[in-house]
Design brief:
Elements: H1 2-20, E1 31-38, E2 49-54, E3 60-64, E4 70-75, E5 78-85, E6 91-98, E7 103-105, E8 108-109, E9 118-121, E10 135-139, H2 141-146, E11 180-184, E12 187-188, E13 209-217, E14 229-235, E15 243-252, E16 269-282, E17 286-302, E18 313-332, E19 335-350, E20 363-379, E21 385-401, E22 422-425, E23 428-430, E24 435-453, E25 457-475, E26 482-485, H3 494-497, E27 518-524, E28 529-547, E29 551-562, E30 571-572, E31 576-577, E32 587-598, E33 601-611, H4 617-626, E34 628-634, E35 645-646, E36 649-650, H5 660-665, E37 678-685, E38 694-706, E39 710-729, E40 734-735, E41 740-741, E42 755-781, E43 784-798, E44 803-807, E45 813-817, E46 831-832, E47 836-838, E48 841-843, E49 849-860, E50 863-872, E51 876-877, E52 911-912, E53 916-928, E54 934-942, E55 952-953, E56 965-966, E57 977-985
Parallel strand pairs: 1-7, 1-8, 6-9, 11-14, 22-26, 37-42
Antiparallel strand pairs: 1-4, 2-3, 2-5, 5-6, 10-13, 11-12, 13-14, 15-16, 15-57, 16-17, 17-18, 18-19, 19-20, 20-21, 21-24, 22-23, 24-25, 25-28, 26-27, 27-34, 28-29, 29-32, 30-31, 32-33, 33-38, 34-37, 35-36, 38-39, 39-42, 40-41, 42-43, 43-46, 43-49, 44-45, 47-48, 49-50, 50-53, 51-52, 53-54, 54-57, ...
C-alpha cells in the first residue's frame, strides 16, 4: 500500500509538470555537442541544419546554427553520425562517440558547392575539455564490458577515475558520511537513511550499465547533496537491431590460494548468470531493453578472535537477483520519453568483526529495492530544451541475528525473529539485535537549458527538484538488554558460559555481574517502530559564459532546503524546544574557469561550496526516544544475580520487565528520588544549533592532448570538510586539575544529574584533503586503449573541540566554552586521518600514494587481453584501548578511547596498514557462430601474484591480535582467485 500511494503521488506530480513544462528548472542532458560552423575564409555560417543520428538506435537530434554560427545539441550517450547541411554548401558528415556528462566541441568547416556532394570528415572528439572546469573521468562502454572485475560490481571501476580515493568498491564512491552521491539516469538512488550506508546501496547488473562518469571535485550547481564526489551512470537502451547476451561466470575454491589470515584455502563457490535483450518496437523511434542477473555464493565467514572455542566457520549461501527494464520513445526529433524500472534482492550473511566479535553478533542480511523513473525531454526551440523527470525508490533492510532461542523465535520479538541480550566485554562483543528499516523516496525534477548572447555566449541551466524522503524504522535497539561488562578482564571460563553459541537459552550470564558497569534496556510504547518524513527542495542556476575564443567562465549558485534536517520542530525537553528555525540560507556558489591555450591545451580551475545530505541518524533517533525509554541501570548494591536472565526474570530489573509508562514514572528526570532509573540517550540525538555539513572544494589543473588519441591531465584538488559528524556523551563535566572528565559514575558531577548517557550527533568536526592527480589517457586505436592515474595526497581531520553543556534559563540545553585545555584524546586534536568503522559510522584514512593502470589489447584472431593494476600505500587506521578508562559513560564507540592504564595516550592514527598491490587479468577468445552470433570464452585471474592485501586490522590494543590483519570478505582483499566464464551475443 505504501508503494501504491507513493506511485499515485508521483504520477500526479509528473502529469502536472508535463503540462506546465516548468520554465525555470533544469538538469543537464546526458551529453552535449557544441560548436561553430564556418566557411574557408573563417566567416561564420548561420542557418546550418545539424542532424545527429544515433547509429545504434536511429534516434535523430536536430539543431540550427544561430547568427554567430554556433549550435548546441543535447543528445543521449552513444555513437553518432553528424550531418551539416545548407543550400549552396557541400554537406559535411562526421562520426564521433558521446560519453555521459561530456560537453564535446565539434567545429565544422563547410565549403561552397557547385554540385550536390557530401564530404565525410574523419576524426574523434577532442580529449581536452574546453568548456568546463570540473575534475572528472569517464568509464566508457569498452571498459565497462572488457575489464576484469572480481564479483562484477560495476562500482569497482570507480577506482579507475582520476581523484578516486578508495582501495575497494562496495556501494559508495567515497566512504565518508555525506561525501558520496550516486545517480542512475539522473535519478538519485543513494541509500542514506543513516551515516554508514556503504554496504546498503542498490545493485545493478554490470550488463545493464552502459557507462558512467565520476566527478571527483567541483561538480556544477545542477548537482548536489554531496560534499565530496558524484557518480553519474546511464543504463543501456535498445537499438534498431534485436540483440542480446547470455553470460556465465564461475569461481571455485579449487583454483583459490590460501587465505592470508587463516592460512588455509577457505570453502568458496560463486556462480553468476546474466542475460540481456533489446531491440526496436518501432524502428528509429521506440526501443526496449531488459536485463536479469542471478548470483549464488555459498560463503564462509571465519572468526579469529581471542577465544578458540568461538573461532568457528559460518557457512551461508548468498543469493542476489538484479532485474532492469527500460523503454525509450522518440515521439519526434524534438520530444522523447525514457522510462526505467529496476529491482534488487540480496540475501547474505554478515559476520561483524571477525577479530573482536562472537559469532552470535553476525546474522543474515536482506537488501530489497525497487526503482521507477521517467524522463521527458522536449526541444522548445533552437536555443532551449526542457526536461522533466520523476520517480520513486523503495529500499528495505532486514538484519536478523543468527542466534535463536531454543532454535525458534525469541519470546519477545517485536522485529523479525527477535534478538539476544548483547554483552560488551573488554575488547569483545557477544549477541545482536534485529533491524528492519525502509527508505522510500519520491522525486520530481525539471530542467531548462537555454543560450543567449550578451558579452559572449551564455549556456544557461536553471533547475530545481523536490524529494519526499521517508523512513519506516523497526529497530529493536537494546530491547533485550545490553550488559556493559568491561570493568575488568572477562572471566577465564568465558567460553564455558556460552556452550551453544547460537542458542541464547543456554547462556549463563550470572558470572558477569561482578565485572558489569551497567545494563542498558529499552522499552517502547510503539513496539520500537518510528516514521520519519523529510521534504527536500533545491534550485540552481548555472551559466557557462564563453568570453571570446579562449576563455569560458563556469558560474553557478545552488540553494538547498530541508524541512527536517535537524529535528527543528520536534519537542523533546530539555534537548529540543520544538520551535527551532530551519536552515534557510544554504546557498552554495560554484565558480570556475577554462582557458584554452591552444586547440590541444587548456588550463582550468575554480572554487565551490558543497552541502551534504544532512545525516538522518539524529533525526530518526531523536524521534525514537520520544517513544522509547532506555534504562541505564547500575548495580549499586552488588547483587550477584544482577545479570541473571531466566523465564521472565531480568536481574537488572530484579524481577519481570516493566512497561513503558511504568518505567517513565521511575525515570530520574521525571521523579528524582532514591532508586530512580536514569534515562539513557545512548543513540545520537539532535541538539540546538546543529547545521548541515559542507565542504570547500578547490581545483587547478592543466590538460594536454597529444596527437589524436592521447592526453595528459594534472590537477591539484582540495576538499575542506566542515561540520563533519562525530558523537559524544555531553552529560559530563571536566576537572581543571586533570584536563579530563569527571567519571560518569559520579552522578554529582554530571552536567544533567537526572539523566544517564546523553549522546549528541555532533556536526562539528573538520578535515582537509590535498591531492595531486596525474592522469594519462589513450583511447582505443591501433587495437589498444589504456589509462593510468597516480595520486599523491595528504588527508587530515579532527574530532570536535568539547564544550560544557548545561540547562539554560529557558529550560533548554545550552553550552559554553570549558575555559581550560583538555587532554588531547578528548577532541580538537588535528592529525592525519585514520580509517574507522563502528557505531553506525565509517570513514577512510590518510593514504599517501595511489596508482591505478588499466588497459585493453585486441591481439588479433579474436583474442583480447585486458588488465588492471592497483597500488595503494599503507592506509592509516584509528586505534583505541578498547575500554572506557576515562569513564565517559557510553557503551558505543563514540569517544576516542585512547587513554591507557599507564596514563599515556594512544596516537590518534596509531596504525598504518601494509601496501596493497593487486593485478587482475582477463584473456578472452571470440568464436563466431554465424551472422550476428558469437561466443566469447573468458579466463580471468584476480590478484595474479597472490600479494597479501589486507583491508581490516585489529585496532583495539586490549585485543591479543592488536595490529594484526583481520578477515575482510571484500573481494579486493582475497588471495589469488580464478574465474571461468562465457558470453554469447546474438
Amino acid at each position: 500500500m505504501r508503494s501504491l500511494r507513493s506511485c499515485c503521488v508521483i504520477t500526479r506530480l509528473l502529469v502536472i509538470g508535463a503540462i506546465v513544462m516548468l520554465p525555470a528548472l533544469g538538469h543537464a542532458q546526458e551529453s552535449t555537442m557544441i560548436g561553430t560552423v564556418s566557411d574557408p575564409t573563417g566567416s561564420v555560417v548561420p542557418g546550418v541544419t545539424l542532424t545527429a543520428t544515433n547509429i545504434e538506435s536511429g534516434n535523430t537530434f536536430v539543431a540550427v546554427t544561430d547568427e554567430r554560427g554556433d549550435f548546441r545539441l543535447p543528445v543521449r550517450v552513444g555513437n553518432y553520425k553528424i550531418t551539416a547541411e545548407l543550400a549552396g554548401f557541400t554537406t559535411v558528415s562526421r562520426s564521433l562517440q558521446m560519453l555521459v556528462g561530456q560537453t564535446v566541441v565539434v567545429n565544422i568547416q563547410m565549403v561552397p558547392a557547385t554540385v550536390a556532394e557530401t564530404v565525410t570528415v574523419t576524426g574523434e572528439a577532442p580529449l581536452v575539455d574546453t568548456t568546463t572546469s570540473k575534475v572528472a573521468g569517464n568509464i566508457d562502454p569498452r571498459q565497462m564490458q572488457e575489464l576484469p572485475l572480481n564479483g562484477r560490481n560495476w562500482m569497482d571501476l570507480t577506482l579507475l577515475a582520476p581523484g578516486a580515493r578508495r582501495n575497494e568498491a562496495v556501494g559508495l564512491v567515497q566512504n565518508r558520511q555525506g561525501y558520496a552521491q550516486t545517480k542512475v539516469d539522473g535519478q538519485e538512488v543513494t541509500v542514506n537513511y543513516h551515516s554508514s550506508p556503504d554496504s546498503e546501496q542498490t545493485g545493478y547488473s554490470r550488463d545493464a550499465i552502459a557507462e558512467f562518469e565520476v566527478v571527483a571535485n567541483r561538480f556544477d550547481a545542477s548537482q548536489g547533496r554531496s560534499a565530496g564526489m558524484l557518480v553519474n551512470a546511464v543504463t543501456k537502451s535498445g537499438t534498431n537491431a534485436f540483440a542480446g547476451t547470455f553470460s556465465g561466470y564461475f569461481r571455485d575454491d579449487k583454483f583459490n590460494a590460501a587465505d592470508f589470515v587463516s592460512k588455509r584455502v577457505l570453502p568458496y563457490s560463486n556462480q553468476q548468470l546474466s542475460g540481456t535483450l533489446g531491440g526496436p518496437i518501432v524502428k528509429d523511434r521506440v526501443h526496449f531493453f531488459g536485463s536479469y542477473e542471478y548470483e549464488r555464493e555459498p560463503k564462509t565467514f571465519t572468526y579469529n578472535g581471542p577465544y578458540p572455542a568461538f573461532n568457528i566457520d559460518v557457512h551461508f549461501p548468498s543469493r542476489v537477483h538484479k532485474v532492469l527494464g527500460r523503454l525509450d520513445y522518440q515521439f519526434t526529433p524534438a520530444t522523447r520519453l525514457s522510462v526505467r524500472g529496476s529491482g534488487y534482492n540480496n540475501l547474505f550473511y554478515a559476520g561483524a568483526n571477525a577479530a573482536t566479535d562472537h559469532p552470535s553478533a553476525g546474522g543474515t542480511r536482506g537488501r530489497v529495492a525497487t526503482q521507477y523513473f521517467a524522463t521527458l525531454t522536449h526541444v522548445i526551440s533552437n536555443r532551449t530544451v526542457n526536461q522533466i523527470s520523476g520517480g520513486l525508490t523503495n529500499y528495505e533492510r532486514q538484519d536478523q541475528p543468527i542466534v535463536r532461542w531454543k532454535g525458534k523465535d525469541f519470546p519477545y520479538h517485536p522485529v523479525l525473529h527477535g534478538g539476544s541480550v548483547i554483552i560488551n566485554l573488554r575488547g569483545y562483543t557477544i549477541g545482536a539485535s534485529p533491524l528492519n528499516i525502509f527508505q522510500d523516496t519520491q522525486s520530481i525534477r525539471d530542467d531548462l537549458t537555454t543560450s543567449y548572447e550578451w558579452g559572449g555566449r551564455h549556456d544557461l541551466k536553471m533547475g530545481g527538484d523536490y524529494l519526499r524522503f521517508h523512513n519506516d524504522y523497526r529497530w529493536c535497539l537494546r530491547c533485550d538488554g545490553v550488559i556493559v561488562a568491561d570493568t575488568a578482564a572477562p572471566p577465564a571460563n568465558l567460553e564455558s558460559l556460552f556452550p551453544v553459541w547460537n542458542d541464547a537459552s543456554t547462556w549463563n550470564l550470572a558470572p558477569l555481574a561482578s565485572i558489569t558497569r551497567w545494563v542498558f534496556h529499552s522499552l517502547s510504547d510503539t513496539e520500537h517502530r518510528y516514521n520519519v518524513v523529510r521534504h527536500l527542495f533545491a534550485g540552481w542556476v548555472q551559466d557557462d559564459w564563453k568570453l571570446g575564443q579562449r576563455l569560458t567562465l563556469n558560474l553557478g549558485v545552488r540553494y538547498d532546503w530541508d524541512s527536517n534536517a535537524h529535528s527543528e520542530k520536534l519537542r523533546f525537553l530539555p534537548w529540543l524546544p520544538g520551535n527551532l528555525p530551519r536552515e534557510n540560507h544554504n546557498f552554495a556558489p560554484r565558480l570556475g574557469l577554462n582557458y584554452r591555450l591552444n586547440d590541444k591545451t587548456v588550463l582550468r580551475g575554480g572554487y565551490g561550496l558543497f552541502f551534504a545530505f544532512a545525516p538522518n541518524d539524529g533525526v530518526q533517533q531523536t524521534l525514537g526516544y520520544l517513544h522509547r525509554f532506555e534504562n541505564q541501570i547500575f548495580n549499586y548494591d552488588g547483587r550477584s544475580d544482577f545479570t541473571t536472565l531466566r523465564d521472565g526474570f531480568f536481574g537488572w530489573f530484579n524481577g519481570p520487565k516493566p512497561g513503558f509508562q511504568e518505567s517513565l514514572q521511575r525515570a530520574c528526570d521525571i521523579n528524582f528520588v532514591d532508586g530512580c532509573v536514569y534515562r539513557s540517550l545512548q543513540q545520537e540525538i539532535n541538539y540546538p544549533g546543529r547545521k548541515t555539513s559542507y565542504s570547500h572544494q578547490v581545483s587547478a589543473g592543466i590538460q594536454r592532448q597529444f596527437g589524436t588519441d592521447m592526453s595528459l591531465e594534472v590537477n591539484y584538488v582540495y576538499t575542506g570538510g566542515r561540520r563533519e559528524e562525530s558523537a559524544q556523551n555531553v552529560n559530563l563535566t571536566y576537572d581543571p586539575a586533570t584536563g579530563a572528565n569527571y567519571p560518569f559514575r559520579d552522578v554529582s558531577h554530571r552536567a544533567f544529574p537526572q539523566w544517564g548517557t546523553v549522546n549528541f550527533e555532533l556536526l562539528e568536526g573538520w578535515s582537509n584533503y590535498h591531492g595531486g592527480d596525474f592522469t594519462f589517457t589513450k583511447r582505443f586505436s591501433h587495437r589498444w586503449q589504456g589509462s593510468a592515474t597516480y595520486t599523491l595526497s595528504r588527508f587530515g581531520d579532527a574530532d570536535p573541540r568539547r564544550d560544557q553543556w548545561y540547562i539554560g534559563n529557558d529550560g533548554i540545553v545550552a553550552r559554553r566554552p570549558i575555559g581550560f585545555p583538555l587532554a588531547p584524546d578528548l577532541g580538537g586534536e588535528y592529525t592525519l586521518a585514520g580509517a574507522v568503522t563502528g557505531g553506525g559510522f565509517a570513514q577512510g584514512g590518510d593514504q599517501r600514494h595511489r596508482a591505478v593502470v588499466n588497459g585493453i589489447w585486441d591481439i588479433g584472431h579474436g583474442v583480447q587481453l585486458s588488465g588492471v593494476y592497483f597500488f595503494g600505500s599503507g592506509e592509516r587506521f584509528r586505534t583505541n584501548f578498547g575500554s572506557d578508562l576515562r569513564d565517559e559513560g557510553s557503551a558505543a564507540p563514540v569517544g576516542s578511547r585512547r587513554y591507557r592504564r599507564d596514563e599515556t595516550i594512544i596516537p590518534r592514527r596509531g596504525l598504518v596498514g601494509d601496501p596493497i598491490h593487486r593485478v587482475d587479468m582477463r584473456l578472452q577468445k571470440r568464436l563466431p557462430l554465424g551472422e550476428r552470433r558469437q561466443v566469447f570464452g573468458i579466463f580471468e585471474v584476480f590478484n595474479l601474484f597472490n600479494h597479501a592485501n589486507y583491508g581490516s586490522y585489529t585496532t583495539n590494543e586490549s585485543n591479543a591480535n592488536y595490529g594484526k590483519p583481520s578477515f575482510n570478505d571484500n573481494l579486493a582483499y582475497q588471495p589469488r582467485m580464478l574465474q571461468l566464464g562465457f558470453r554469447t551475443t546474438f
